[in-house]
């Protein structure tokens, strides 16, 4: 009869093999999207080369750790084996996270639109961000500036909420010690558009990176897949809107992300 360590190891590698299969499928879909970007000439070729290298790096790191720990298993007693198995499970979980991100980004967006109070949606996004911060919430101050009149728009509330939350998550992550995050909603009458602005007090963007935040897999953080802002861009553009990011004017630090949506 197999002992518990053997059963755990067997289960681990079954999950690992399933994850690799999903990586291959998602990678194929991403490559097709990259080909589409190439045909549209919307991304520099140098970035596409960098993208492929980053993706391989994200997957190779946990694979290397799994390989080392598997080799160590053959040389260890039962107590050490249990720790190695936990390390392998952690590596598999990291690959699972990568796979989930790849699948989510590569799947086509399916819209379910309804008339939505945009101010309420922004409030929900802030509340969700506060909940995710948990004990660190007091280090971050959210300011929400809404117009007196209620603004409704035909949107997919779940997807648009995700788009705003992705931007808030990015602002939080670039300010690990806390700071102010300001959101505002306004109606540009001459252009007949809604404008959502989200500002943070992070380090801002270098001149070399200012055009890259909406590219898939670009990130300046030490962790993360760099898919949050590109996903927000896909969602906003699917709604017929636009999104841009710019450094706040000096002497202020941080960035301003501007989402625009047509009123009609």
Structure report:
The protein has a 5-stranded mixed sheet. The chain has a two-stranded antiparallel sheet with strand order 1-3. The longest helix is centred in the N-terminal third of the chain and has 37 residues, at 4-40. Helices cover 53% and strands 17% of the residues. The chain has 264 residues and is an alpha+beta fold. It is elongated, with a radius of gyration of 22 Å. The chain folds into 2 domains: 4-106, no CATH class; 114-262, 2-Layer Sandwich (Heat Shock Protein 90). Helix 1 (4-40) packs parallel to helix 3 (78-106) and helix 2 runs antiparallel to helix 3. The termini are far apart. The model has no long low-confidence stretch (mean pLDDT 77). The protein has helices spanning 4-40, 45-73, 78-106, 118-133, 157-173, 228-238; strands at residues 114-117, 140-145, 152-155, 179-188, 193-199, 242-247, 255-262. It has 6 helices and 7 strands.
SSE diagram, text form:
Blueprint: H1 4-40, H2 45-73, H3 78-106, E1 114-117, H4 118-133, E2 140-145, E3 152-155, H5 157-173, E4 179-188, E5 193-199, H6 228-238, E6 242-247, E7 255-262
Parallel strand pairs: 2-4
Antiparallel strand pairs: 1-3, 4-5, 5-7, 6-7
Helix pairs in contact: 1-3, 2-3, 4-5, 5-6
Summarize the structure.
The protein has two domains: 4-106, no CATH class; 114-262, Heat Shock Protein 90 (2-Layer Sandwich). The chain is 53% helix and 17% strand. The protein has helices at residues 4-40, 45-73, 78-106, 118-133, 157-173, 228-238, and strands spanning 114-117, 140-145, 152-155, 179-188, 193-199, 242-247, 255-262.
